[in-house]
């Protein structure tokens, strides 16, 4: 029983990490129709900014206000990078999807090279607060606190996004833009500001994933964002393009499937099963779990 509890909770921790990356990715695609392959750069920027800030703030490695400020600095860095990418590189290319893909792929590669040039290609030890290195007993299982932190953070982000999308003016504009961008533009609403805001929100969520992912894995590396981005794309497709709730459902399914199959099967079998799940969804429900069927 304790093994099942441990696998479930650690799987949910992995799911939370996937959701934090996928939530902003889903919003960006749903509103702006941009397949942002540079989204992993936002994660890496947040991770390295948090790592740098934690090394310069007193007491950050012990937890408390110093660590919280370091994470906030990383989230702000991710949001700024996301907004700048949209303003400088994506905005001139909204009507040119092929160029969008080329630019975001190129930016992703350039970002990794830039991080390697600044801090080297080797992984850096992340300054984990002491309390995240411990475990908490849950139904006889010793669950790492870092995984529980990820689950709590993902829950807060999910609630905050839903409140923002359903209760604020910009949130309503974003939801309307996801449904029918042409109609929103015809009503005289400038959706360009919403585009920039969505990129900033996506960058902030990805940066938070980078910061807490550093705590979870104990290290940070230039290519970490790219490896997590692959599973984030899978989560977005399974959940339904543009659906934050669908991304949450899909992240839970992917994380738990991966964790259980990797434990009870051979190494890497969980990744194969995740790809198989993606194939099944594309075959039998191509719009995703929470996506809507396209109408002519």
From TrEMBL:
<feature type="transmembrane region" description="Helical">
    <location>
        <begin position="6"/>
        <end position="27"/>
    </location>
</feature>
<feature type="transmembrane region" description="Helical">
    <location>
        <begin position="147"/>
        <end position="165"/>
    </location>
</feature>
<feature type="transmembrane region" description="Helical">
    <location>
        <begin position="229"/>
        <end position="256"/>
    </location>
</feature>
<keyword id="KW-1003">Cell membrane</keyword>
<keyword id="KW-0812">Transmembrane</keyword>
<feature type="transmembrane region" description="Helical">
    <location>
        <begin position="66"/>
        <end position="89"/>
    </location>
</feature>
<comment type="similarity">
    <text>Belongs to the binding-protein-dependent transport system permease family. LivHM subfamily.</text>
</comment>
<keyword id="KW-0029">Amino-acid transport</keyword>
<protein>
    <submittedName>
        <fullName>Branched-chain amino acid ABC transporter permease</fullName>
    </submittedName>
</protein>
<keyword id="KW-1133">Transmembrane helix</keyword>
<dbReference type="InterPro" id="IPR001851">
    <property type="entry name" value="ABC_transp_permease"/>
</dbReference>
<dbReference type="InterPro" id="IPR052157">
    <property type="entry name" value="BCAA_transport_permease"/>
</dbReference>
<feature type="transmembrane region" description="Helical">
    <location>
        <begin position="34"/>
        <end position="54"/>
    </location>
</feature>
<keyword id="KW-0472">Membrane</keyword>
<feature type="transmembrane region" description="Helical">
    <location>
        <begin position="101"/>
        <end position="121"/>
    </location>
</feature>
<dbReference type="Pfam" id="PF02653">
    <property type="entry name" value="BPD_transp_2"/>
</dbReference>
<keyword id="KW-0813">Transport</keyword>
<feature type="transmembrane region" description="Helical">
    <location>
        <begin position="263"/>
        <end position="284"/>
    </location>
</feature>
<feature type="transmembrane region" description="Helical">
    <location>
        <begin position="194"/>
        <end position="217"/>
    </location>
</feature>
């Amino acid at each position: 029983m304790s093994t099942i509890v441990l696998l479930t909770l650690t799987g949910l921790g992995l799911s939370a990490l996937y959701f934090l990356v996928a939530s902003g990715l889903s919003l960006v695609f749903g509103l702006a129709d941009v397949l942002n392959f540079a989204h992993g750069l936002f994660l890496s920027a947040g991770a390295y900014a948090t790592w740098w800030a934690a090394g310069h703030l007193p007491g950050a490695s012990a937890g408390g206000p110093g660590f919280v400020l370091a994470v906030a600095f990383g989230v702000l860095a991710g949001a700024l990078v996301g907004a700048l990418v949209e303003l400088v590189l994506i905005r001139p290319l909204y009507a040119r999807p092929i160029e969008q893909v080329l630019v975001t792929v190129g930016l992703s590669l350039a970002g990794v090279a830039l991080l390697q040039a600044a801090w080297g290609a080797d992984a850096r030890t992340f300054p984990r607060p002491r309390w995240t290195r411990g475990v908490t007993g849950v139904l006889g299982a010793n669950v790492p606190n870092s995984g529980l932190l990820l689950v709590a953070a993902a829950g807060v982000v999910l609630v905050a996004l839903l409140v923002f999308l359903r209760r604020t003016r910009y949130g309503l504009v974003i939801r309307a833009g996801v449904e029918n961008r042409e109609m929103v533009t015809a009503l005289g609403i400038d959706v360009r500001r919403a585009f920039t805001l969505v990129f900033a929100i996506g960058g902030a969520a990805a940066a938070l994933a980078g910061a807490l992912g550093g705590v979870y894995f104990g290290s940070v590396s230039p290519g970490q964002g790219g490896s997590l981005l692959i599973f984030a794309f899978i989560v977005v497709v399974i959940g339904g393009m543009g659906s934050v709730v669908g991304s949450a459902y899909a992240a839970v399914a992917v994380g738990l499937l991966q964790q259980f199959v990797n434990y009870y099967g051979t190494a890497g079998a969980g990744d194969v099963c995740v790809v198989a799940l993606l194939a099944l969804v594309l075959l039998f429900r191509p719009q995703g779990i929470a996506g809507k069927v396209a109408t002519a």
